[in-house]
Amino acid sequence: MPESDDPIRPPVAFVSHASEDKPDFAEPLARMIANLGVQPWLDKWEIRPGDSLVQMLFDEGLATADAVILVVSQYSVSKPWVREELDHATVQRVNRGTRLIPVRLDNVPMPAPLQHLLWVDAERSAASVQATARKIADTLHGHDARPSVGPPPTYTMVAPRIPGLTPADAFVLTEIIREAIASGHLLLLDWNIIESRAQAAGVTAEALVESMHALGEGDYVDVSFRAEHVHDVKLTRFGYSVGISAVLPDVDQVHQRVVSALVNDPPTGIQIIHNLADRASTERLVVDQLLKDLEDRGLVTVSRGMGDSSRLHNVSPTLRRVLDEY
Predict the structure, then answer these.
(1) Residue range 154-242, CATH number
(2) CB-based contact 236:189 (threshold 8 Å)
(3) CATH fold for the domain made of 249-325
(4) pLDDT tens sequence for the chain (326 residues)
(5) What is the spatial distance between Cα 68 and Cα 65, in angstroms, rounded to a whole number?
(6) Alpha-carbon distance 226 to 207, whole Å?
């Protein structure tokens, strides 16, 4: 498209048409595009007997034209410039110098040289003239008709990267872990709280159900559904271990403090989980899950009673070696 040093120069468009199309379409279209900031060239291009549109284009206008609006109708398709002169080579030459915009009336077959172009279908009505002019003006002014792109949902920006999980899955898992930490256990978590946090972060209801299916199938959670609605949810130890570092980035340092306390000054009494949580400045669930991992490895023996009671019965001499893991 030709450019100008004048920033306020309006784009110029030749409205090429058959004379029969002038009263009810071509002239109204020219007036409308003028109202929309496009300079129409109309009268010089009136199709008259013996005129060669192609010759006029190359001799008079392409150096200054930004577009050629080509009205193709039941009248113009019989004109010599369409039937004989406007061949593939000519169309390509026009397109190299300016933008060629075909406008089709009367639902006529589009001439073969123009079929590779995107054309505008129009009717001989005021509403159609207005709509066609708007499309042409938007094109020549560079207006993007697509809606502006807003910011992505919150969850996509804050969700951790967890292999095998989508951002929505990972975000939901971390919210489940947060609720487990707040409640102090992995079982019978408050789904209403989890759901409201996920939806506030932009996870749709449909995506949330899909994520819960994925997390259940991956053994991150135990979840039951009623009519495709989550009925209850429990966090598995595997799901906790996968996502805890996203919720508590310093979890390794917390574990180190707990193990150090067990090695150097094992707690006594009937609330050792509370004791260790206070000494490590962390949540009781974090301590409880660490103790279960150490129990699985045979490094400690812990009993848990009713309520919050917990006792430490044995600490292996090799537990100090775990400190080297952090």
Answers:
(1) 1.10.10.10
(2) no
(3) Arc Repressor Mutant, subunit A (1.10.10)
(4) 444 455 578 998 988 888 899 999 999 999 999 999 999 987 655 556 665 555 665 555 555 678 888 899 999 887 765 555 566 656 666 666 678 899 999 999 988 878 888 999 999 999 999 999 999 999 999 887 788 888 899 999 999 999 999 999 999 999 999 999 999 999 989 999 999 999 999 999 999 999 999 999 999 999 999 988 999 999 999 999 999 999 999 999 999 999 999 999 999 999 999 999 999 999 999 999 999 999 999 999 999 998 889 999 999 999 999 998 88
(5) 7
(6) 16
